[in-house]
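Reviewers asked in the last cycle whether our approach scales beyond single polypeptides. To address this, we selected a multi-component target totalling 512 residues and predicted its structure end to end. The input consisted of the following lines:
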Amino acid sequence: MEAAPKELLRCEGLSLRYEAAAGYAVQGVDLSVCEGDFLCIVGENGSGKTTLLKMIAGLVQPTEGRVLYTGLRPSEVGYLPQQTAVQKDFPATVTEVAMSGLLNRKGFPPFYTKKDRETARAHLERFGVWDLHRASYQMLSGGQQQRVLLARALCASEKLLLLDEPVAGLDPHAAAGLYEILGALHESGMAVLMVSHDLDGAFRSQAKILHMATAPLYYGDVAGYGEFAKAGKGGFHV
Amino acid sequence: MFDLAQEMFSFPFIVRAFVVGTLVALCAALLGVSLVLKRYSMIGDGLSHVGFGTLAVAVALGLAPLQVSVPVVLLAAFLLLRISENSRIKGDAAIALISSSSLAVGVVVLAMTVGMNTDVCNYLFGTILAMKKSDVVLSICLAAGVLTLFVLFYNKIFAVTFDEGFAKATGTRTGVYKMLLALLAALVIAVGMRIMGAMLISSLIIFPALSAMRVFRSFARVTVCAAALSVVCFFFGLLASYTFNTPAGASVVLANLAAFLIFTAAGQIRRLVS
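The resulting structure, written as structure tokens, was:
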């Protein structure tokens, strides 16, 4: 019998409201992510997907419930934030940005080694942006920036990736390439937790789906999600 | 110019002011890159005003200026950072409030005690006569501390400045580094304030970073350039002050302004060429 995969993190009754009087932004989410899981969080705009991911990443404190890192340290998480406009004129090269992902895997003192440079290079090459490595990050196009940030997220972790809309800003070809890379990472044992409202290509048959509408509407495997969607309960067509 | 510099450095008080000023300019520029990019420039400005208030109170009470202003300015740095982080309060408005209140307290305290004299002018706009041996020692210790911490945590500072969310999500204690930046800035301001003046010291934090960003596009180069530029501008400012008998602090700020204009032009030319 195969050993059950090790749990990495768990959410228990996770809820958030911004004001005591206001309604919930996220309500009552229980979930568990194990090694090698591929979990897609889907839902309409404003359904609390991104907020949920931010709570899992530790950027937003839940008002109720808690996030437990049961099987990994915070420094073993790779995170791709939703693309925000980087401050104009921020001086940073592509290499500087990508390498910053490696920082928390290093002990003390926090200096990069030659090996770190090679790791960063490998990830940048993987996303086809190595030839831009000396370019200024803020001069890149949106899609190029997204790929640099993905490389940074990969630099940060070999265990768990938290991705917020990873294909936003990518053209269909690049998006397909990204899913291919994510697939390969998943094969190699990386757990992926991804917020998306694009379902095409996002689905791997082994994926789990969490459909959010403030509270979780569906949480389970892809096959079950098809039934859920067909039943007209508001799910996306698969 | 060489003769002029040689003549200038034959005065021990100018040598002391040069040593303290150069070290303060260097530290301020290093911290300034992050402070400007994280939009904390106002904190530097607020701290210098708080520094003026405490300096005035210290003089009125007959206490050593630095022993009073250093702890108070450190405390103010802590509070100002908390205020600007808290989105429920209008951060910039709160800082402006604290700035002008501290300034008013300082002016009133001085008026009630020593009177509005040239001392007040010196606190506001700086004087190079104020530096004693103990200030030189203190500024060397300060610079050694700031440089060590900055080099040691350079990569962390970059990560927190560039993308705080990512740094936090991947396990960096971002609050610690932001507080470190604010506290070091407070120390630099407290030490540099008497040369540069409470009204002018924040320019040492802001100008070199802005000038360097006109030309360079990598964080490492901007940092190195800002540090070097700040030291050069301090030297020429001091030299101009000696030559034309102008106030040192204001002369250094004008040297920084000139550098900023030159770098802006250079940046434009570079953009046109490429």
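DSSP finds six helices and nine strands in chain A. We regard this as preliminary and will revisit it once experimental data from Aim 1 are available.
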